TrEMBL record:
PANTHER family: ACETYLTRANSFERASE, AMINOALKYLPHOSPHONATE N-ACETYLTRANSFERASE-RELATED-RELATED. SUPFAM superfamilies: Acyl-CoA N-acyltransferases (Nat). It comes from the Bacteria. Residues 1-166 form the N-acetyltransferase domain. Coiled coil: none annotated. Pfam families: Acetyltransf_1 (PF00583). It comes from Saccharibacillus kuerlensis. Keywords: Acyltransferase, Transferase. This is N-acetyltransferase YuaI.
Length: 173
């Protein structure tokens, strides 16, 4: 397994992981009708644009399996909620179901924390659906609940939780 910064040519692999992960992670949570509308092609276009025009305050990392295929990704940058300096946000992290529970997510997270510290960030937060099993992953890493809000996905309303680490220098991963 190898973790590295994403390149524009990784857009297709990231898009595939994005859609496949949504379909497995949110099965039974988000309606099948909505999940069936997810398009790798549409995500591919978004990711290609994102990677072709990178923002200097953001980063995308990918995890490659032993066959060199992208099996996960992590997207991060300045907090979109506060916009304050030194406050980072984990925008998205997805890992194929077949690659979960192998330490890959933890290793991607660890590398992101190192990069955030190198860039001068002091805190980190992530928004996650309340029913998402990843809530437990973040709590085990020391995240505390910051707030909640209601969001719409398709025709349904869900609770999203903001989890955070006020001082990433104290994180032990």
């Amino acid at each position: 397994m190898r973790i590295r910064f994403a390149k524009p040519e990784d857009a297709a692999g990231i898009a595939q992981v994005h859609v496949d992960s949504w379909k497995t992670t949110y099965k039974g949570i988000v309606s099948d009708t909505y999940l069936n509308t997810l398009s790798v092609g549409e995500r591919w276009n978004r990711w290609e644009k994102r990677l072709m025009e990178p923002d200097r305050d953001e980063g995308v990392m990918v995890a490659e399996n032993e066959r060199g295929q992208i099996c996960g990704f992590l997207d991060f940058g300045e907090s979109r909620e506060t916009g304050r300096l030194n406050e980072a946000e984990l925008y998205a992290v997805y890992l194929l179901q077949s690659e979960q529970r192998k330490g890959i997510g933890r290793e991607m997270f660890r590398k992101m924390i190192g990069e955030l510290q190198r860039r001068g960030y002091r805190s980190l937060m992530v928004w996650v659906l309340e029913q998402n099993p990843a809530v437990h992953f973040y709590v085990r890493l020391g995240a505390v609940e910051l707030e909640r809000k209601e969001i719409r996905i398709g025709e349904e309303t869900f609770t999203e939780i903001a989890l955070g680490w006020p001082d990433i220098s104290r994180l032990t991963i």
